[in-house]
Specification:
Layout lengths: L13 H14 L1 H22 L8 H15 L3 E8 L2 E7 L15 H15 L4 E6 L8 E6 L1 H7 L3 H8 L3 H5 L2
Antiparallel strand pairs: 1-2, 2-4, 3-4
Helix pairs in contact: 1-2, 2-4
This protein binds zinc ion (ZN).
The site of zinc ion has 8 residues, from loops.
């Protein structure tokens, strides 16, 4: 764990991040990867600003602190939901990238990278994140799942099935 950094923050209009995200995602896999990488780096800086050490806090408590940091940065708000011993979920309301997205699938790639960066650093190992359902900028939150690389590898092929089950409850969607 590196000491808290003095990373410089820039404040962009939300529309700039929304446009950047949509344009990058439109490029395809390389654009999505760039967004996730940028998000991952931002997550590391957010974590450093929170001054947390790996393994010091529970996800629930940690996500509550992250929620405060994201609200302050104008990036929305997050809440933690346990799903199973190996999978957790994060509900993200007001994701800047979700506005105007045309699909229920993953569209908040910067946010997914940010969560992966924050959670990996907190856990002290690689934590993978996938957006199971995007809220599309409406009233519904975006719904992210996180777990080990191996666990999410087994979830990814049946994401559409998971998406359909989300409204019946996270446990039912992925808990088998
Ligand atoms: Zn989303």
């Amino acid at each position: 764990m590196s000491p808290p950094s003095e990373a410089t923050a820039v404040h962009l209009p939300k529309s700039a991040l929304t446009t950047l995200s949509h344009r990058c995602a439109g490029i395809g896999a390389a654009g999505v990867e760039a967004l996730r990488e940028a998000g991952y780096r931002a997550g590391s800086d957010v974590l450093a600003a929170l001054g947390e050490s790996a393994g010091d806090v529970r996800y629930e408590e940690f996500l509550s602190r992250l929620d405060t940091a994201l609200r302050r940065a104008g990036l929305g708000s997050v809440a933690y939901e346990p799903v199973s011993p190996s999978i957790g979920a994060v509900f993200w309301r007001g994701s800047v990238e979700a506005g105007g997205s045309r699909t229920d699938g993953a569209s908040c790639h910067f946010a997914a990278g940010l969560l992966a960066g924050v959670l990996s650093r907190t856990a002290g190992r690689t934590v993978d994140v996938v957006e199971a359902r995007c809220g599309g900028g409406g009233a519904r939150p975006c719904w992210f799942l996180f777990g080990s690389v191996e666990t999410l590898r087994s979830i990814r092929p049946r994401l559409s099935e998971v998406r359909e089950a989300v409204d019946r409850g996270p446990q039912e969607a992925v808990g088998r």
